């Protein structure tokens, strides 16, 4: 009887707990959707920013390479003279 009574108490506690948290679980689900949307927006912004930074870096690197090639060409021309 003692075990049966504890099982009944446990069942009652679980049932009450689900009733109490039922509405808050719906709230959590809604907030979870908001968080997912924010993460998606942030991800898009981050990808865009990184893409822009890569383009800038590539452009600057190409400019530096052209200047170096130009300098090397001038040095070679000076050495031949």
From TrEMBL:
Organism expressing this protein natively: Methanothrix soehngenii (Methanosaeta concilii)
Domain of life the protein comes from: Archaea
Protein name stated in the entry: Acylphosphatase
């Amino acid at each position: 009887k003692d075990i049966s009574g504890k099982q009944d108490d446990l069942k009652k506690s679980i049932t009450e707990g689900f009733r109490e948290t039922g509405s808050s679980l719906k709230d959590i689900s809604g907030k979870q959707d908001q968080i997912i949307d924010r993460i998606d927006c942030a991800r898009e912004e981050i990808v865009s920013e990184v893409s822009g930074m890569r383009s800038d870096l590539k452009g600057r690197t190409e400019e530096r390479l052209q200047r170096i090639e130009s300098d090397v060409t001038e040095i070679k021309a000076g050495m031949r003279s």
